[in-house]
């Protein structure tokens, strides 16, 4: 087996991984970094983020306002020490990105422009037209090329963490072009592998968002936190699930039902006028807007389409000039995929799975409970997002906590000195390789990857969607346990070594099943409604029993073990979430 | 939803078992609004697990799924079946070695991208607490178009010069160099010049313009290269004037 000796291994080269790598390179240029990713950095899903990144920069704004919006947006499940740190650091991170060349949209004065976003009291979302994530990712990738200590391993699929005596020391990864297993051996690992939206059938997430890093940490004994909180974005294109940014509504777009009625006013988000108005109607938080769609559908006020029921996003009054300037990708995607030009037509939309609030449990330094293991970005749960993330907080999160992960990993490496146990790790790596080889040797496997994936997808959507209840969740848990059992008999049909996507899809499916199980079991056990987790049988928030983080621990032979951890509350006591006229 | 039967003729090549590439035909039941990528995904899931290709975002932004569709370089997620007849031929992007099936080796491009120093080289570092650099919308516009490149490599596949001479730095990397040269925050043009204005840089471009025609993001690399040629030529000539560098 090939061995790469290094100091810091970073798994994932999207926004968080690249930011972490640069932070390490700047903090200590003598440390070697192995940046390992299953795709080239610019393919990472950060590129698909459209709307922007929130950070206090305007004089009318304050850190407290951003803090309060984020904490109440998260339905008080956020850790307030983390949020405070986040809102304080994000303006600096966004400015740093500006210095690195990010093409932020500007005011006439040359200052960075901001736009309104859902659930935010003040306009504070920095944006680069409607391709913010794309520009941030390419800026970070291109900037990372300045640092000679960052060594990239593009298209290496990571299979396992290497852990010696409770300390994480590296990982094994398959070089995709050769199929050769490689051991990355260092002193610490940072996981920045993104979310897992692909566990659902209808998602904005790209094919690569399969929860590999979450599952890897989970299998190694690190808990996954708050996994029942899955964000549905209210405006996805039907059929494909392609995201239409919240910026559409930030720029003034309206949501109407089959009667042309702005139905959000019926769900504690009105009154509709005067408009535009922050924290009201179309600029409410994502969980509430997606839930409103569900109720409109039940009332028969949505619009049937060949792709299922939809509502309409009306941007016609914005005019062609503004749409071209602020929302060019939205126009391109809408015309191409549903044949609707936002300049002249109503665009059909429906809620779509977008983001995992939950993830690998970390503290505010991006450290997991395992020595030597850090995590940042969507794969992690700090938690600044609580029960519902506000739009434009995730691009900020990957910068702030990516950088913190990098800097704290450097501090950690300085303290550990020389580590022993390389021989034991090489044996572990050999075991990891044997597990892959056994997939190749298996004969007579009956289970097909596509069929298992479809079963997992459908049961999650049916039982664990915008609204859940005891029966739907028990059914989902049972069916996922069945999928998990069947996966043990999965059939690898392609036995070749070079760029074997049958193999990677098989391994990705294994990761997704583990993650899906934590989502369903965590949801079943949380008998309350909070943020994105809505129970038809427990409709109220229950702070007495559930103002807690869910912790799901891996169990190789059964359901995950569920435990709970306290939420950190510093200065904002839990209260009612207020939007619409009452929020003014 | 109405269904259409499409014949996909896909170029296959698995270096461990195939002496040379060959075409394999799949008859795929397709939905009318599908793109070519959806049809390939159907093949992968339902017909042949051994077919390999790259893809991720399905929304024209990650740049993974470039391939030749009926001989034209395209993103498979932006190639709508409604624009094609019943038979569609799918090959890997030309001008690159085939790694496997529709997957190409892109090391050469990555090296070229790195060679043009695609990052801000500031006059002097500015402390973060002094805030952002001011950049007016007009200054932003000067380079914005060239910052839209998704590195999908369609332009290299279409470029006749790159087909003849693989040392040519090529459209996307040169456009990216131009993007940073035109950025009001950057003073790195001279640091990029030895690559950009070299024999294998802008001067190798014969201005056929195929790169700009196939670009899915309207980056117009050909226009960028023409602009760089002009400024480099002016630099060269002014270097002979009194006070010039020469």
Detail the topology: elements first, then pairings.
The complex is a heterodimer of chains A (584) and B (246).
Chain A: E1 2-5, E2 8-11, H1 15-27, E3 33-37, E4 53-54, H2 63-73, H3 80-99, E5 114-115, E6 125-126, H4 132-144, E7 150-154, E8 156-164, E9 167-175, E10 180-185, E11 188-191, H5 212-219, E12 224-225, E13 230-236, H6 247-250, E14 254-256, H7 286-298, E15 311-314, H8 319-326, H9 328-338, E16 347-356, E17 359-361, E18 373-375, E19 380-381, H10 394-416, H11 422-441, H12 449-463, E20 467-468, H13 470-487, H14 501-525, E21 534-535, H15 543-546, E22 548-553, E23 561-566
Parallel strand pairs in A: 1-10, 2-3, 2-11, 3-7, 11-18, 17-19, 20-21
Antiparallel strand pairs in A: 4-6, 5-6, 8-9, 9-10, 12-17, 12-22, 13-16, 14-15, 15-16, 22-23
Helix pairs in contact in A: 1-4, 1-10, 2-3, 3-10, 5-14, 8-9, 12-13, 12-14, 13-14
Chain B: E1 3-12, E2 22-31, H1 36-47, E3 66-69, E4 72-75, E5 87-91, E6 98-100, E7 103-104, H2 107-115, H3 137-144, H4 154-158, H5 160-164, H6 171-181, H7 189-196, H8 210-214, H9 221-238
Parallel strand pairs in B: 1-5
Antiparallel strand pairs in B: 1-2, 3-4, 3-5, 6-7
Helix pairs in contact in B: 2-6, 6-9
